[in-house]
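Q: How would the structure tokens look for this protein?
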Amino acid sequence: DGLVFTAGTYENQTYVFAFALNEAPVWKKPNGSAWKVEVSWARGYDGPRSTPTYDKGVVYNLSERNKLTAYNAKNGDMVWSRDLMTDFDADMPTYGFTESVLIENEKLFVKPAGKKGYMACLNKSTGETIWINKEIQGEYGYDSPVLQNIGEYRQLISSSSTGYFGLDTKTGTLLWTADIPNMHQLK
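A: Here is the predicted structure in token form.
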């Protein structure tokens, strides 16, 4: 619809921005406080880690500090918002939340990596939980999930700190894992 969306930090605040194709700003809306890396060698990692996801007039953004918000694409009005750390009992990942959420039909897939759900499927219109998966082992995996038809399943494929996994997109059932010993130490 003639707009470009991105995320950024300004005055210690994370924002989602909408620009017209001629680069004119259309709207900017806050999405949680900005996060700064704790370790000195990673200072360049400060700020947002993901790009907004657009789908049918709504922009979805996961901030680096765990706030998942849906905005009206035309005016930036908030449609709904979730706090992943609170809702799924998740810890702050070492490098913050980094994924761009994935949408298919009415489902939004996100990785809280919490005790109440490692992966979650939400209703993209309301933010309500459709299913969660608590079986996945390891800490937060720094990737955005992908979808693939494998066998008789539409699968959500992603990672944790210990390996890769595939889930049934309909139910969240764990279909397979590919554990990689010391995956977090690979270079």
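The first helix runs from residue 84 to 87.

The chain is about 0% helix and 45% strand.

Upvote if useful.
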